[in-house]
Write a structure and sequence with these properties.
By secondary structure, the protein is α/β, with parallel strands linked by helices. It is globular and about 45 Å long.
C-alpha cells in the first residue's frame, strides 16, 4: 500500500461562526493543498471536515500518516471514542449525545478503508505544514465575514 501523509486544520471565528478548514496531502514528491469553509459552523466541525475531505481524495486503500492539532479528532479516532459513540447510537459514555454524528459517521467509513496512524501536533508552533493548514483555514473562514 502507498503511504500518504496528511496534515489538517480547522478554524472558526466565534464558535459557532464562520469557519474554514485546510489540508495538505503528500505522497512522494507530490503535494496537494485543499481548503473550504462554511458560513455558520464550529471549530470541531471544521477539524473533522478537513480530515474527511483529505481522505475522500484517496483513490485506493492507503497507509495514512494523519497529523492534526485537534485532540478531538485524534483522540476520537485513536482511542476508539467515535466508534463507541456510534455503537451506542451516538451517545457518549456520560450518556450525553455525541456532537457531529454526521461527520463522525462519514469519517469512520473512510478510516475503515485505510490504515491510519495518528499524530497530534501542537498548533501554532513550529510545524510548517500545520501552520500552512491553519493559514488556509483562517483565510477560508474570512470569506464568510
Amino acid at each position: 500500500m502507498k503511504t500518504v501523509t496528511i496534515y489538517t486544520d480547522g478554524a472558526c471565528s466565534g464558535n459557532p461562526g464562520p469557519g474554514g478548514w485546510g489540508a495538505i496531502l503528500m505522497y512522494g514528491a507530490h503535494r496537494k493543498e485543499l481548503s473550504g469553509g462554511e458560513a455558520n459552523t464550529t471549530n470541531n466541525r471544521m477539524e473533522l471536515t478537513a480530515v474527511i475531505a483529505a481522505l475522500s481524495l484517496l483513490k485506493e486503500p492507503c497507509i495514512v500518516e494523519l497529523w492534526s492539532d485537534s485532540k478531538y479528532v485524534i483522540d476520537g479516532l485513536s482511542k476508539g471514542w467515535a466508534a463507541g459513540w456510534k455503537k451506542r447510537g451516538w451517545i457518549k459514555s456520560d450518556k450525553k449525545p455525541a456532537l457531529n454524528p454526521d461527520l463522525w459517521d462519514r469519517l469512520l467509513e473512510l478510516t475503515d478503508i485505510h490504515t491510519l496512524h495518528y499524530h497530534w501536533v501542537k498548533g501554532h508552533a513550529e510545524n510548517e505544514y500545520n501552520n500552512r493548514c491553519d493559514e488556509m483555514a483562517v483565510a477560508e473562514s474570512r470569506k464568510y465575514k
